[in-house]
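Is this the right way to post C-alpha cells for a design question? Let me know if I should format differently. Anyway, here goes:
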C-alpha cells in the first residue's frame, strides 16, 4: 500500500495529469507502478495523454520522489490518494478530485459535514466581523469550516472556526511554501485543530494559476459555499461557480449597496443564492446532506453578536447604538449627533463595550461589533 501511494505521489508531479487522465491510464495498466514503467510512445497512444504528458511521466525519477518524501517527513505532512478509502468522500464525489492530497494535521470522517466560507482579500470591518461570528457558530455546532487561508475573509473564517471547532485550509501552494507568509502561525494552529491541505507538491510556489484549482477543492469538500464579501471579479465567485457545477448550495451574506466588496455577493443573491444572516439559515438548507451533525449550541449564541441581550439595554444605550454602524465614527461626532457631552457619550460607549456591542478603534473611533 505504501508503494502504491508513493507511485501516485510521483505521478501527481506531472503537470496536467489529472484524475480523468489517470483513470484512462489505469484502464490500460494494472496499477501506477506499471504506468511508471511503460514506454513513452505507448503512454502517448492512450486517450488524452499525448506526447507531452507521456514524456513527463517517462522523465520522472526516483530521486525526485525521495526528496519529496524527506520534505514531507521534515514538515510532518502525510498524503492520501483519491483511490484510498480514507480520502474525503465529498471531494471524491466531485467532478475532478485531486489525485493526491497532502495533509498537515488530521482529516476526520465528520469533516464530511463541512461548509466553505470565502470572500474578499480586502474586506470591510463589517465583512470580517460577520464572517468570524458565522464561522464560530457553525464550528460550535460540529460543522467543519473550509476556506483558502488567503488574506481577508478566508483568514477570518479560519480564526472564527478555531474558537469553537474544526477548520480545513486549502492552499494554492505546496505545504512547504505557506502563503501568505504572515499566516504561517495560523497554519500551525489550524493543523493542530483541523488540517492544512494541498494537491500541489511540497515546494510548489503560490502561482496565480494554482488558485482556481485550489477553489474547486474548497467547493468539493463542502456541502455548500458561503460568500461573505466579494468584488465584481473576486476569486470567491469562482468557488461559488464550482459549487453550482457540483450541485452544492451557494449562500451569500448581503452587503451594503454602495460597497465595492459587496457587488459580487449582492449579484449572487439576485441570481438565486440564498441570503443568509445566521448559521441556522445555512444548516436549514444542508440538513439532508449532514451525516454527523449534532445540534449542540454554545450557551452564548455567537451569531447573535456574542450574547447581546437587547432587553438589557437602557433607553440611552439603545439610542447610542442607533448612531453606530460598521463604519468608524469619532467620539466628538457622536456627541454632536446625540446632543450629549463627550463624557456622557464616553460613559455610554464603555457600557456598550462591556455588553460586547461596540469596539473602540484607535483615535477614539467606535464601530459596531
Amino acid at each position: 500500500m505504501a508503494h502504491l501511494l508513493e507511485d501516485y505521489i510521483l505521478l501527481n508531479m506531472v503537470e496536467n495529469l489529472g484524475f480523468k487522465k489517470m483513470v484512462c491510464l489505469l484502464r490500460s495498466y494494472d496499477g501506477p507502478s506499471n504506468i511508471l514503467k511503460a514506454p513513452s510512445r505507448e503512454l502517448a497512444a492512450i486517450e488524452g495523454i499525448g506526447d507531452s504528458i507521456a514524456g513527463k511521466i517517462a522523465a520522472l525519477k526516483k530521486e525526485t520522489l525521495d526528496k519529496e518524501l524527506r520534505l514531507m517527513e521534515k514538515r510532518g505532512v502525510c498524503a492520501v490518494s483519491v483511490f484510498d478509502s480514507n480520502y474525503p468522500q465529498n471531494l471524491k464525489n466531485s467532478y475532478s478530485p485531486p489525485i493526491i492530497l497532502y495533509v498537515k494535521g488530521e482529516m476526520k470522517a465528520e469533516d464530511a459535514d463541512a461548509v466553505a466560507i470565502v470572500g474578499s482579500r480586502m474586506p470591510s470591518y463589517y465583512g470580517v466581523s460577520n464572517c468570524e461570528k458565522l464561522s464560530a457558530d457553525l464550528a460550535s455546532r460540529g460543522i467543519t469550516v473550509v476556506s483558502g487561508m488567503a488574506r481577508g475573509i478566508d483568514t477570518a473564517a479560519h480564526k472564527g472556526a478555531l474558537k469553537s471547532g474544526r477548520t480545513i485550509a486549502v492552499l494554492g501552494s505546496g505545504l512547504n511554501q505557506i502563503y501568505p507568509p504572515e499566516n504561517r502561525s495560523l497554519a500551525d494552529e489550524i493543523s493542530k485543530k483541523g488540517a492544512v491541505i494541498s494537491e500541489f507538491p511540497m515546494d510548489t510556489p503560490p502561482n496565480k494559476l494554482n488558485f482556481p484549482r485550489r477553489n474547486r477543492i474548497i467547493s468539493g469538500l463542502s456541502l455548500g459555499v458561503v460568500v461573505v464579501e466579494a468584488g465584481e471579479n473576486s476569486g470567491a465567485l469562482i468557488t461559488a461557480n464550482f459549487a453550482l457545477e457540483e450541485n452544492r448550495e451557494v449562500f451569500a451574506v448581503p452587503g451594503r449597496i454602495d460597497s465595492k466588496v459587496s457587488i459580487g455577493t449582492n449579484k449572487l443573491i439576485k441570481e438565486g443564492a440564498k441570503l443568509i444572516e445566521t448559521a441556522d439559515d445555512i444548516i436549514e438548507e444542508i440538513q439532508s446532506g449532514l451525516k454527523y451533525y449534532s445540534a449542540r449550541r454554545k450557551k452564548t449564541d455567537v451569531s447573535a453578536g456574542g450574547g447581546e441581550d437587547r432587553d438589557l439595554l437602557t433607553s440611552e444605550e439603545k439610542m447610542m447604538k442607533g448612531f453606530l454602524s460598521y463604519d468608524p465614527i469619532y467620539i466628538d461626532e457622536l456627541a454632536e449627533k446625540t446632543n450629549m457631552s463627550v463624557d456622557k457619550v464616553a460613559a455610554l460607549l464603555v457600557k456598550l463595550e462591556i455588553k460586547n456591542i461596540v469596539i473602540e478603534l484607535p483615535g477614539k473611533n467606535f464601530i459596531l461589533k
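Format looks fine. Someone answered above. Worth noting: The chain has three domains: 2-60, 105-304, 310-368. The longest helix spans residues 125-140.
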